[in-house]
Design brief:
Layout (H helix, E strand, L loop, with lengths): L9 H15 L2 H10 L7 H21 L2 H24 L1
Helix pairs in contact: 1-4, 2-4, 3-4
């Protein structure tokens, strides 16, 4: 395995970068939803399925000790669940 930054394997660095980007992709929607309290254009069914899938990826990461998967999906779940919470609360 090739080492990269801070002595981490390249695959770990790649996983952390990919997870960071997909997690950060949720941030603008969370901020907008928080500010406007509007979720009219957000699909409840899609966010329920998405949150379930993210939770399963998190569990998969835990079972396999895969830190990039654990970190990325843990944080992404918090952001997606925040949007889901607003959707359930504000319709």
């Amino acid at each position: 395995m090739k080492e990269h930054a801070m002595g981490l394997p390249f695959e770990t660095v790649l996983g952390l970068l990919a997870g960071s980007l997909t997690t950060l992709a949720f941030l603008p929607q969370v901020i907008r939803t928080w500010r406007t309290r509007s979720t009219a254009d957000i699909s409840l069914g899609m966010f329920l399925v998405l949150c379930a899938g993210i939770a399963l990826w998190f569990v998969y990461g835990v079972l396999n000790g895969d830190w990039p998967v654990i970190i990325a999906n843990g944080l992404t779940f918090l952001l997606a669940a925040t949007i889901l919470g607003f959707k359930l609360r504000h319709g």
